Amino acid sequence: MSTDSDTTTDGDDSGGHCSTPDSDGEVAEEIAIISFERKLDTAREIEAGIGQGYETVDVVEYHGDVFADLWGEYDCFVGLMASGIAMRKTAPLLDDKWDDPAIVVVDEELTWAIPITGGHHGANQVANDLAEMGAVPAMTTASEAAGKQGVESKAKALDTHVVNGDSTVATNLAVLNEELGPVARLDGPRAVLVGDDVTVLKRNADEGVVLGTGTVSGVDAHQVREAWEAALSDLDLTLDDVDFVATGTRKEGEAGLYEAAREAGLGVVLFEKGTLEAFEGPSPSRSKELIGWPGIAEASAIAGGRDHELAREKERFDDAVTVAVGR
Predict the structure, then answer these.
(1) Which end of the chain is more exposed for a tag (fewer CB within 10 A), N or C?
(2) Residue 92's domain is classified under what CATH number?
(3) Inside any domain, residue 197
(4) Which of 144, 159, 191 is the last residue of a domain?
(5) What would the DSSP string read from start to end of 256-310?
(6) pLDDT digits (tens, 9 = 90+) for 15-28
(7) Residue 308 lies in a domain
(8) Are 127 and 15 contained in the same domain?
(9) Quick one: pLDDT band at residue 306, thresholds 50, 70, 90?
(10) How many domains, the chain?
(11) In a domain, 233, yes or no
(12) What is the pLDDT of residues 73-111, one digit of tens each?
């Protein structure tokens, strides 16, 4: 089976869901805001603005060895300083992009948020969160700069982590050249032989459900969120039990759906028509009669679930959102 996946931004500070898995499966939870004394008021504004979404956000006054002293204790440093200072002080400390903390610099006016290192490992995530405070996130990772979704972002959307990090050089180049294609899912047990240019993604959680979702055009994010919560409540589940949201490629860019997923800290996975046809649900659907697509909610829930089964058949909420739950 194959999936064509897309991801939302990592979270919303008002919803407290900024801490989503980064590309290697770890979670950006502990943030240190490094600031000169005269900028501490701005640092505390940042702490208040993004603090609810992370396990820890500490404000630390700058001194010459501050990065060295705290290296390894935080997932991400936010440097309230010139980028040159952060670069000179952290460059000697860098070892491996899969282990090093992410680094973002931001100016005192909160005009720019610039990921310096670890863009796919928390820096882009934090920069996007700072955008909620008015800063412009200056993404320089190749896939994001080109408006494309790198394999690390695909991993995040699928709630997985990259097993073989060195492979991402080749696979992200394929993303830029539009040659990668959809992510292929293999259910085991089985043995797979892969080359150095094949990125292997492994799920982070042992259990979880998939929210298969269909919407009307222009749906409101609040409608989507309430529909998800209602469907899950019947199963005694919450949004914390969800791996990701699944839908069809024809819903790509549906603002209300993506906003609801962003607020819930969930990735959105898009399935192509052919995949949905292979996992068509049991309930009749007008979509198949009118436009030739199988019912998106059930088919995407079944396609995305580990067992390819429905935990809950589809239900339409508020005449705007249809939700099925897969497992």
Answers:
(1) N
(2) 3.40.50.11220
(3) no
(4) 144
(5) HHHHHHHHHT--EEEEPHHHHHHT--SS--HHHHHHSPPPHHHHHHHHHSSS--E
(6) 333 333 343 434 46
(7) yes
(8) yes
(9) confident
(10) 2
(11) yes
(12) 998 999 999 999 999 999 999 998 778 999 999 999 999
State residue 67 phi and psi, 5-degree precision. Answer: -65, -45
End-to-end CA distance of the chain: 16
- Taking residue 267's Cβ as centre, other Cβ atoms within 10 Å add up to 27
Segments forming the whole domain that contains residue 240: 209-326
192 domain residue, yes or no: no
pLDDT at 10: 34
CA distance 293 to 295: 6
Q: Are 224 and 132 found together in one domain?
A: no
pTM for this prediction: 0.56
Give the three-state DSSP class for 93: helix
Q: Are residues 22 and 140 in the same domain?
A: yes
Same domain, 14 and 122: yes
Q: State residue 54's pLDDT score.
A: 85
DSSP 153: H
What are the structure tokens assigned to 158, written together? 């699928």
pLDDT category, 7, cuts 50, 70, 90? very low
- Domain final residue, candidates 128, 144, 160: 144
Whose tokens are 């989503």? That residue is: 20
Distance CA 21, CA 266 (A): 10
Helix (H, G, I), strand (E, B) or coil at 113: strand
CB atoms < 10 A from the CB of 14, how many? 12
pLDDT for residue 112: 93
- 110/131 Cα distance (integer angstroms): 9
List, for residues 213-239, the tens digit of each pLDDT value.
999 999 999 999 999 999 999 999 999
Mean pLDDT of all residues belonging to the chain: 83
Ramachandran region of residue 122, left (φ > 0), alpha (ψ -120 to 50) or beta? left
Q: pLDDT value at position 43?
A: 96
Alpha-carbon distance of 74 to 102, in angstroms, equals 9
